[in-house]
Design a protein that fits this description.
five-stranded antiparallel beta sheet; alpha+beta; 39% helix; 137 residues
Length: 137
């Protein structure tokens, strides 16, 4: 049986470990995982639709720009400034959205959560479950 001090230590260690790579978070409807370059085509196709674009900042204008964005997310995560998860609905291989957590104060004392999910998954519970997984992490 672990003491509360051991539990806190494990949680603190896990919180620091994410700089080397994000852990995969899984639920019943969705898996959150670090973005891969191979996600760029699906993200471009799904997140540049008129429905999705009206609720977000301008997305990268092409697949190559999405690839650069994905590379940037890895660098920012390694620096401890930013967390970006790909939203992978069950039954899919590629990310169909993203959850972003930006650091506003050191150590994520304050942060900003952003997200975008392909319109075909709106109203399916993917957002709710993904947000819960991210916030629990």
């Amino acid at each position: 049986m672990m003491s509360s001090t051991q539990t806190i230590f494990k949680a603190e260690r896990r919180a620091l470990d994410w700089r080397g790579g994000l852990p995969t978070l899984s639920g019943e409807r969705v898996t959150l995982r670090e973005l891969r370059i191979s996600d760029a085509s699906t993200l471009y196709a799904e997140l540049t639709s008129p429905e999705a674009k009206k609720f977000m900042w301008a997305p990268p204008p092409n697949v190559v720009a999405f690839e650069r964005f994905i590379e940037w997310t890895h660098k920012e995560r390694a620096a401890g400034k930013y967390i970006c998860y790909g939203v992978v609905p069950h039954g899919k291989e590629d990310a169909w959205g993203v959850f972003e957590l930006r650091q506003l104060q050191p150590g994520f004392v304050r942060g900003e959560l952003g997200f975008v999910i392909a319109p075909s998954y709106w109203g399916t519970g993917v957002f709710y479950e993904g947000a819960q997984l991210l916030l629990d992490f």
